[in-house]
Write a structure and sequence with these properties.
By secondary structure, the chain is an alpha+beta fold. The protein contains 1 helix and 5 strands. The chain has one domain: SH3 type barrels (Roll), CATH 2.30.30.140. The mean pLDDT is 90.
Protein backbone atom coordinates (compact mmCIF):
# COMPACT_ATOMS: atom_id res chain seq x y z
CA UNK A 1 0.00 0.00 0.00
CA UNK A 2 1.23 3.46 -0.83
CA UNK A 3 0.42 6.35 1.48
CA UNK A 4 0.39 9.94 0.31
CA UNK A 5 1.82 12.62 2.58
CA UNK A 6 0.29 16.07 2.89
CA UNK A 7 3.35 18.23 2.39
CA UNK A 8 3.85 22.00 2.25
CA UNK A 9 5.86 23.54 -0.55
CA UNK A 10 8.75 25.56 0.89
CA UNK A 11 10.35 26.59 -2.40
CA UNK A 12 9.98 25.68 -6.07
CA UNK A 13 11.83 26.08 -9.33
CA UNK A 14 8.72 25.26 -11.39
CA UNK A 15 9.75 21.65 -12.02
CA UNK A 16 10.55 20.44 -8.52
CA UNK A 17 9.69 21.71 -5.08
CA UNK A 18 11.30 21.46 -1.69
CA UNK A 19 8.48 20.21 0.52
CA UNK A 20 8.14 19.51 4.22
CA UNK A 21 5.99 17.37 6.46
CA UNK A 22 6.81 17.46 10.14
CA UNK A 23 10.59 17.27 10.47
CA UNK A 24 11.06 15.77 7.00
CA UNK A 25 12.10 17.76 3.94
CA UNK A 26 12.40 16.35 0.45
CA UNK A 27 12.55 17.52 -3.14
CA UNK A 28 9.58 16.29 -5.19
CA UNK A 29 8.41 16.62 -8.77
CA UNK A 30 5.56 19.10 -9.36
CA UNK A 31 5.23 18.42 -13.10
CA UNK A 32 1.64 17.22 -12.59
CA UNK A 33 0.63 20.54 -11.04
CA UNK A 34 0.41 23.76 -13.03
CA UNK A 35 -0.20 26.15 -10.13
CA UNK A 36 2.00 24.89 -7.30
CA UNK A 37 3.70 27.68 -5.37
CA UNK A 38 5.42 28.20 -2.03
CA UNK A 39 3.02 27.69 0.87
CA UNK A 40 0.70 25.37 -1.07
CA UNK A 41 -0.32 22.04 0.45
CA UNK A 42 0.21 19.08 -1.88
CA UNK A 43 -0.40 15.35 -1.72
CA UNK A 44 2.91 13.57 -2.37
CA UNK A 45 3.17 9.97 -3.57
CA UNK A 46 6.61 8.48 -4.30
CA UNK A 47 8.29 11.89 -4.57
CA UNK A 48 5.69 13.35 -6.94
CA UNK A 49 3.09 15.92 -5.95
CA UNK A 50 -0.13 14.55 -7.45
CA UNK A 51 -2.62 17.23 -6.42
CA UNK A 52 -3.15 20.40 -4.47
CA UNK A 53 -4.87 20.07 -1.09
CA UNK A 54 -7.01 22.46 0.85
CA UNK A 55 -5.85 23.30 4.38
CA UNK A 56 -8.68 21.12 5.73
CA UNK A 57 -7.78 18.13 3.53
CA UNK A 58 -4.13 18.38 4.57
CA UNK A 59 -5.14 18.55 8.24
CA UNK A 60 -7.45 15.52 7.99
CA UNK A 61 -4.83 13.41 6.20
CA UNK A 62 -2.20 14.41 8.74
CA UNK A 63 -4.50 13.53 11.65
CA UNK A 64 -5.26 10.14 10.07
CA UNK A 65 -1.54 9.41 9.68
CA UNK A 66 -0.88 10.40 13.31
CA UNK A 67 -3.82 8.20 14.36
CA UNK A 68 -2.42 5.27 12.41
CA UNK A 69 0.96 5.74 14.06
CA UNK A 70 -0.66 5.89 17.51
CA UNK A 71 -2.65 2.74 16.80
CA UNK A 72 0.44 0.88 15.60
CA UNK A 73 2.19 1.87 18.84
CA UNK A 74 -0.68 0.59 20.97
CA UNK A 75 -1.79 4.09 21.98
CA UNK A 76 -5.27 5.57 22.05
CA UNK A 77 -6.08 6.93 18.61
CA UNK A 78 -9.71 8.10 19.04
CA UNK A 79 -8.80 11.79 19.22
CA UNK A 80 -7.32 11.62 15.71
CA UNK A 81 -10.61 10.34 14.31
CA UNK A 82 -13.02 12.52 16.30
CA UNK A 83 -14.94 13.40 13.12
CA UNK A 84 -15.80 9.68 12.66
CA UNK A 85 -16.77 8.77 16.22
CA UNK A 86 -20.51 8.53 16.67
CA UNK A 87 -21.22 8.63 12.93
CA UNK A 88 -22.24 5.64 10.89
CA UNK A 89 -20.19 5.60 7.68
CA UNK A 90 -22.33 6.11 4.59
CA UNK A 91 -21.65 4.27 1.36
CA UNK A 92 -21.59 6.31 -1.83
CA UNK A 93 -24.77 5.98 -3.87
CA UNK A 94 -23.13 3.77 -6.50
CA UNK A 95 -22.17 1.21 -3.82
CA UNK A 96 -25.56 0.96 -2.14
Amino acid sequence: MCLGLPMTIVDTDGITALCEYGNERRRVSILLLSDASAGAKVLVHIDSAVRLLTENEARLISEALHGLEASLNGQDCDRFFADLIGHEPQLPEHLR
